[in-house]
Design a protein that fits this description.
This protein has about 375 residues and is of the alpha+beta class. About 25% of the residues lie in helices and about 30% in strands. The protein is globular and about 55 Å long. The protein binds adenosine-5'-triphosphate and magnesium ion. Adenosine-5'-triphosphate binds next to β6, β9, β12 and β14. Adenosine-5'-triphosphate binds near residues 145 and 146.
Amino acid sequence: MRESAAETRIGIIGGGQLGRMMILAGKPLGFHFGVVSASRDDPAVSLADRWFPGALDDAHAIGELVEWSDVTTYEIEHIDVRALVAAEAAGGALAPRPEVLELIQDKLKQKRHLERAGIPIPAILDAPDSYPVVQKIRFGGYDGRGVVVLRADTDDRLPGATYYERCVEIDRELAVIVARSTRGESSVYPVVDMEFDPAASICSRTAIPASVADALAERAQSVALNAVAAIDATGIVAVELFVTTDCEVLVNEIAPRPHNSGHLTIECCETSQFEQHLRAVAGLPLGSVRLLTPGVMLNLLGSAGAVGTPFLPFQTELLAEPGVHLHLYGKSAVRPYRKMGHVTITAAVRDDADRVADRVAQYAVVEGRGERE
Ligand SMILES: Nc1ncnc2c1ncn2[C@@H]1O[C@H](COP(=O)(O)OP(=O)(O)OP(=O)(O)O)[C@@H](O)[C@H]1O
Ligand SMILES: [Mg+2]
């Protein structure tokens, strides 16, 4: 690694909003960024210093990025691991290591690994033995695509490579963002409340601090730290958790990268998950994760029928709300439920942020202006 961050080149595989927000966080520290991404229109590309055109399985583009970069990281987990292994073998530095990605990409392998490490998870089933039961695709799922609850033996099942999990009775969903640096330092953020929108099948709203008792929050943090240690990742790792109606804390899944549930750390914590990720993969000291203010984050999604060029009829009204912080991802086309941006609402007490968020959630939906010209 170079003497100072101001000379360090960070490679990011994937050009979406997570990469974009990494760049926004890393520029003040002086980092240079290269991005592998298929389209010039992708959210991270216009902010990057170098664009390496290529898809997530383009071994040539990935090889060039890794060679250009001092350290290469990811903003998405659906990357061809063989390309990463080859780039590492050619002398590149990757954080986290390709093995971590390989483990995470296969949800069944991930779950079995956690189970063996003694991390509490919903029971994995070889075949449904009672209903309801949850069926999940092993590879490539996101935003709830690839997860179904089967209520009876006759229900439609997902095709392809899948597995089954015991359907647990969820009281609430939490997320814990953990950072582990290449120097072996680790830190854990305050616990986040996650709300899941069944219509959009997407995590629609998060809030910090989670409205749980201190003892439960500490248990969630300790389960998350153990889960992250079990997969030996570096950088930010997000751990999605269920609190069951029996007050058990179970790991749902792990993402080895900055995560939607951590967006509110930009305003609410001393060091954002994006800056922390960069510090961690560049081998710099981790920053403080102290909570600065309560906050609520809402995803700005495309409306149910939105297509074409996005427009935000609510922008003026939104920016007049107290404590509002708007983040748009610069996507050139909107689709139903596509994540177009997010808004974080801060307030001195969480109840006040919740009240503003309830109001904003009624109108902050991204529309489309028909087909793109
Ligand atoms: N075993 C389970 N029992 C009950 N509900 C579950 C179970 N597994 C998943 N769910 C529900 O389905 C949601 C999506 O599951 P999961 O996180 O595995 O999918 P995903 O496609 O990775 O979603 P995302 O990208 O939004 O995280 C969970 O947030 C939870 O509400
Ligand atoms: Mg999930």
